[in-house]
């Protein structure tokens, strides 16, 4: 089918789109493509088909040109665009020239405004079975994403290896500065005091736990079910000489025991599953002291919708960012008091742009480690995520809470925005930044 | 029945409770009272019955002594304590000596922990019909509370006449300082710029609208259905010489029209009714510009429960503080993005303590204006509200939000906590503080 000849019903040359009849190809594939683009709100992209036929952006200021390699790819896009765009781009059956990030924004904005795309997604979502976030399912889901190799992530996450939204004091801050500022922001929101004991659920490569112990003088017990991450985190704590102050536990958060002054979880809730929020709330209620504070940092939504299915299939199985309303299921059951919510959506776009820039610098190494398909897959994921945060498709919520009876809560938020009284690290360590 | 003699089954004197048998009266009324107190978690109160019989606090450190005038009052308390305590206190059939505020806290904490009280309340709530917050119902509900006389409120609200939670930079701030700080906090959260047009839903006696116009150089259109409040607000704006910059409209918020840079509502949502949140969200969506910001300040709950029925009957008909989860119905329908939530619960306890102190100073005047019953009724309301905020029964949420596509949102919250660049009022006025 790739040699398909476009129809020329009106005799105009298909490759001269600025001719008569709004200058767009009139072939069957061209018409199919136009109706597909229309369902996505007529994004400002030009499309070039396998036969050279061009379908131009309606407003003549395209942000990118999309090249489709064959008719089969087009047909697949029609049946299931969410999955098939990602698959075709990964395979190289779709090429993108121009501003890929902005093109994805156009598609997000358009799909968001389009009733037909939303309805199709709802139907498909019901047909689609996910691996549940049971103890076993979570382990498989997390292994899929986080255990593909510490070296891979170290190529583009910056020196902190923090794989969550950073906090940019200004949009000009560097990635590492912003990750450190995020850790400080979290520690300050928790009003950590030397000697306290913190429990962390989902600790990634261990950067936050390390930072808390080093700079706030607390003990940390940090949980994670990713074996590779835990091994990396332990080595890092040993190297920093604070192995005795930070304990990394390879266990599911559901097995947390003990009594703590603070509970923190940065970037885990997205993987917990909304149906498990009441149980997570009860767990926190058991392990947080009556005068303790908690902080949950999670990707979220303004209104819930299912996760993009290609991301779910290829990148993040089982992820499900909640709306704030859904997140409240975690707090209301045990009558936690929500003290502070901050939305850092645009900081995540900024973080992802830094990750993407580093990723592109390392793409040859990534290709060696995996293959070209993998390189393209992760590029689409990073750029698509930027677009999701820029368009408001996704949010980033930091929520501070406490047991409902705690009257030792912060009086105002003034203290978060004053210079720290001590610039000296609370614990001297051997680690360099 | 008020001459009822206590039984002395064991022969001990009823007025010597420190005697044998844990020293408590053994009469039928005493036993009834003890089981009632037990349902409220055995609060630290002594009770003296009409016949002089004393029922002592179990832990011997009572915070107050409650005197019950007759057996009928006790029986009524048993059938419907939420309503009947308020009624009996208002009538003087219950007297309280000692720390009334702390005693109410004891009852709140105890009832909260008691399953039997919660269940009884749920049953009673279903039987109880409220006046719905239709256009007509709201007008009646609001008239009941706010139109009982500007002079009455001016006795104890302080010079701003702001009848909502203040913001105390420190717990030592005065009421007027804290009310002005609250207005600044709200204006700064909305990032008001000179020349902008703000719409306010539920403007009370007009203090915030006035403050915005005077100190932030904006125009304000402010809505309220309380006739007395609107008349007062207009006089105040005229006196301040900014009648041309603030327009007070005696209309229901549902009739707001136009297009505004900012939407603000301080202390109205409690009266809107949870069933009306989606419609309020749509209204805000219609009237807020795409790059606008909104702020809603409302009493709330950690988890929803019905309003105290005595407060609903005597003080605030139709009020219904939402949980954050319920509040999200306002934002999710139109995909508003929640940017910032701050919980100022303890600031409301502080505000109410200041109001109560001024109220007690003016109680003779209040008795002249109304009667002793009214004096006692409002005392109970103010002290009960302090207890509700101190015990975590009620919360105070300030929520900042924007249309979901707005990328002109504040980058961080730093600016809220820096000294204002201009200490000079934007508009010079004739009004004195």
Automatic annotation (TrEMBL), chains A, B:
UniProt record, GO biological process: lipid biosynthetic process; methylation
Positions with biased composition (Basic and acidic residues): 1-11
InterPro entries: CFA/CMAS, CMAS, DUF7884, SAM-dependent_MTases_sf
Keywords from the UniProt entry: Lipid metabolism, Methyltransferase, S-adenosyl-L-methionine, Transferase
Region span, Disordered: 1-26
CDD domains (alphabetical): AdoMet_MTases (cd02440)
Pfam family, one: DUF7884
Domain DUF7884: 35-112
GO molecular-function term, one example from the UniProt record: methyltransferase activity
Stated family: Belongs to the CFA/CMAS family.
Protein name as it appears in the record: Cyclopropane-fatty-acyl-phospholipid synthase
Organism encoding this protein: Steroidobacter denitrificans
Higher taxonomy: Bacteria, Pseudomonadati, Pseudomonadota, Gammaproteobacteria, Steroidobacterales
